[in-house]
Amino acid sequence: MIKKLHDMGVRSGHMYTAGLVSIGLAFGSWLLSKNTETAGLDRADRWGIFIGEWAPTFFAMGVALRMEETHRDLEEPSAGMFEQETTRARSHAGV
Q1: In terms of C-beta density within 10 A (0-12 exposed, 13-18 middle, 19 or more buried), how is residue 94 classed?
Q2: Measured CA angle at 28 (ends 26, 32), to 5 deg
């Protein structure tokens, strides 16, 4: 699933941002529910907790995507690295 998300263009920064937004939404929904609904503080708490539970999931997915990004970087080194290694090898060989 993480590989598929990465292939679709979702990056770790997107998930970290979603986690932070969900924390803000949890507080906002709690405050809005507390001030506008007549159901009382219990329902406001439930709304805040429900949305607040999304944040750890987003952060965990962000970590998994960061690992996928790092893994791919190690597998596919840039052409510049190969050029530098080739140049060093030639200079050490006296070419």
Answers
A1: exposed
A2: 120
Q: How many CB atoms lie within 10 A of CB 5?
A: 16
| pTM (global) more than 0.85 | no
Whether the Cβ atoms of residue 58 and residue 25 lie closer than 8 Å to each other: no
pLDDT digits (tens, 9 = 90+) for 11-21: 999 999 999 99
62 to each of 1, 10, 38, 42, 69, how far by Cα in Å?
A: 13, 9, 37, 31, 10
